[in-house]
Amino acid sequence: MTTDKAGIVETLVSRLGDSGVLRDDDALSRYTHDWAGDALGTPLAVVRPRTTDEVADIVRLCNEHDLRMVPQGGHTGLVGGAFPDRDQDELIISLERMNRIRDLDPVNFSMTVDAGCILEEVKQAADTEDCDFPLSLGAQGSCQIGGNIATNAGGLNVLRYGMMRELVLGLEVVLPNGEIWDGLSALHKDNRGYDLAQLFLGSEGTLGIVTGAVLKLVPKAEQTRTALLGLPSVAAVIELYTLARRGCSDLLSAFELIPRRCIELAMEASPQLSDPLDEAYPWYVLMEVAATGPIDLSEMLERLLENGMEKDLVLDGALASSDAQSQNLWQFRESMLEGQRLKGKHLRTDVSVPISAIPDFVDRAAVMVSDVSPDSTVIAYGHIGDGNLHFNILPPPDTSNEERRVLLHDLEQRLFAILDEFRGSISAEHGIGRTKQAAYLARLSPTERELMQGIKSLFDPKGVMSRGRILPE
Ligand SMILES: Cc1cc2nc3c(=O)[nH]c(=O)nc-3n(C[C@H](O)[C@H](O)[C@H](O)COP(=O)(O)OP(=O)(O)OC[C@H]3O[C@@H](n4cnc5c(N)ncnc54)[C@H](O)[C@@H]3O)c2cc1C
Question: What gap in Å lies between CA 441 and CA 445, rounded to an integer?
């Protein structure tokens, strides 16, 4: 059944009230572009339900009338998945008013939350019971738990705690036909049948709208030590990483690769930052160890660094001796993202290869860039302990918009071809959405494509939910 779109919006207003349905351009502008300014869209309207029943009601209505919809969280996703196109034919369902902490159980190390809770607020709530929800990422002040689930977010601590997939115990989801699936289990072990909850992790809103989640907590770390180190090469970084994995009793919680250019970008974006070490080094590692209980982390870290220096892996380093100093070191990691954003349109990737292959991959890809566009700047950084690299490329500043578009597309294709040789992933972190779709589909085998399409059709036979994301329309 189809009805005119304006009529459906009026029905929604009558059910949710004026504040629950946004239609005018001023009110919509906040929901129509992403952090990077890459994704732009014009929705039919933005609806802002407060409860799971309201979400179910909206979805049922849309499904009955074949109206397309797209769930939206904190709009920090980087592949355009949460944004409609410009035809005003999709309804954005924003979860921002569903932000209740439903329950916190420090004995079970779990908490149940609305999907619209902002990650930072979930972490703060866990902290009140001496627990931590260990997902940490640069966008945590804006992104929502539902968005984190839909993108299977990772971040700075994946090497210790895993991605979102490993941090979710149960889910509540409104399916594309408006039915509510209550899978809010708080069990740590449960082997009954297929794991339905896991299907929604990384599904980018294409299988249903996550409205609630039971999250896994860990004991809050009683002590944390942070170090920023200067190293001569990516190969030295990987060698230090293997020493750290073995020498830190599995207490390593972050191990970030940062090139010199990113330290400069961070200082450009945040002028209060000064060069962290006495000299400039080609590569840096920002690492952290964290623990509860009686263990001497300082001694452990110092021993690792001595070992690294003896082997000529570590050339210099700064160890934070207070929380303020640690935050200052992390400020480089955060500000370098803003520094890149200020450089305008550039190639942003989030690829992965086996950790042991990182030095070769970085060398191969850097040679490719210098052959194709010698004046472009490579900035390869990332969560090296997960094999996840942001191999980004800044074109020369005087490149016109059209030249930039052509150059970046060419460089991306060449980079992905090198990745294929390493059996790497073109999306280790941000998902497929719309922007990675062509590259993703080109690499899917017929069997994989058939299975993926079968799953989508089972959940959403009419194709009303996030149509055209991951899989084509
Ligand atoms: C500065 C910065 C740093 C970042 N660092 C990282 C990082 O380290 N690791 C990482 O993995 N990502 C990172 N990201 C990407 C981004 O923050 C994550 O993808 C995040 O999980 C998106 O959450 P969101 O609430 O903003 O979702 P949105 O951007 O609103 O949506 C993302 C996708 O999820 C879907 N969706 C949103 N909410 C729901 C829901 N309730 N139910 C079903 N589908 C839904 C949307 O339709 C869309 O397809 C970073 C982004 C920025 C801007």
Answer: 8
